[in-house]
Amino acid sequence: MSLMQWCDGRIAGAEAFSAPLTSHALHYGTGVFEGIRSYATDDGGAAVFRLPEHLERMRQGADALGMRFDVAEAAEAVLATLRANGHRDAYIRPLLWFNDGGLGLDVDKLSERLMVATLPWTSHLGTHRVRLTVSPFRRNPARALPPLKLCGNYVNSILAKREASQRGFGEALFVDDAGFVVECTGENVFLVKDGHITAVEHGDALPGITRDTVIRLTGADSRPVRIEELLAADEVFLTGTSAEIARVEAIDGRVFPASPIGDALAARYADVVRGRCDTEHGWLTRV
């Protein structure tokens, strides 16, 4: 049985929907998306983690491209698709893209389409422990491409991820020309030194929602970090909607033998997203 999807106001099996080969987004990456997670809760239900924040960030991406985006419609589409598929632990992918109307670079007259898919999911890293390598690629500078979830932005991540994988690493770490850590291909970076947690801050990095969650849960400070300081840390961990909290085993030849704070925080985060603790934040939207 195919998964149910929502597109342009209706829910149907995935095979019911199609897009023309001349879709503008297919050729130029002119779309905006989000990666969102829902989690099974102990009462037998499910909840979406920080849905309003994800859709607000998507609205910002839509604004950058001059696209119309109805947050309320998208929120209801997310919940309806989860219900149609009976999903509890799931990954949610809303996508707004320019469809047809021409293949020029002027997008004002193009049609737009919105879809939502949900599917069972585990971390895209394949584990909650990962080996990093410093990438020879540089992150898209914010002066050229805003750090939003615009589809075309992610070619940068794909190239860096592919190069790291070919060298046997699980993830690539972007560092800028001045030696400051930016982020990984799909995660923000934290370090722990002498029991103190620091969130890496950089103007070219996506302002992650999981990153914000961890800062609010722990009181971590946020500041620029050079690669030398990261390599001298006691622990390093990554945060992202798909990755959740992934502890870094090594960065190139620098091995981090243990991560007690990262391990404890990962366990706490798992309880937060399932509504077992820290419920006063109102981060869960019931399905």
- Calculate the mean pLDDT score and round it: 95
**How many E strands?**
17
Q: Could you state the order of secondary-structure elements as H and E?
A: EEHEEEHHEEEHEEEEHEHEEEHE
Counting H and I runs of at least 4 residues, what is the number of helices? 7
In short:
This protein is of the alpha+beta class and 287 residues long.
Describe this structure in words.
By secondary structure, this protein is an alpha+beta fold. Helices cover 27% and strands 30% of the residues. It is built from seven helices and 17 strands. The strands form two sheets. Strands 8, 9, 10, 11, 12, 13, 14, 15 and 16 form a nine-stranded mixed sheet that branches. Strands 1, 2, 3, 4, 5, 6, 7 and 17 form an eight-stranded antiparallel sheet that branches. A hairpin with a 2-residue loop joins strand 1 and strand 2. The mean pLDDT is 95.
